[in-house]
Give the backbone structure.
Amino acid sequence: MSKAKVTNARRKRSVRLKLRRSGGGRPRLSVFRSSKHIYAQVIDDLKGETLASASSLEKSMRDGGKTGADIDAAKAVGKLLAERAAEKGVKEVVFDRGSYLYHGRVKALADAARESGLSF
């Protein structure tokens, strides 16, 4: 494994451990970003289960024929995730950006989730 991958993996693990400790029992909104799509899920770490999830791969997102690798797709995923989390009764979460910078698609997803009712 290259030095960059090792450093990235350590950072991810460190961030997640800090979030679990300081989360106060709140679910975690985890973001994964690939070059073509973006995925997000709300995870209850105490029970070890996913409460809600959304991605740019879903059929409702792909109908427009757009790519999942842009800011508009990230906003749509954030809005959809917040709606699904609200259906499950989740209002407050801890944002887990992993090793990604809070910029671009990650920021757009977070802002859309906030506007749709999630607080973090």
About this structure: Residues 3-22 form the longest helix (20 residues). The longest strand covers residues 38-44. The domain at 3-115 is CATH 3.30.420.100 (Nucleotidyltransferase; domain 5).
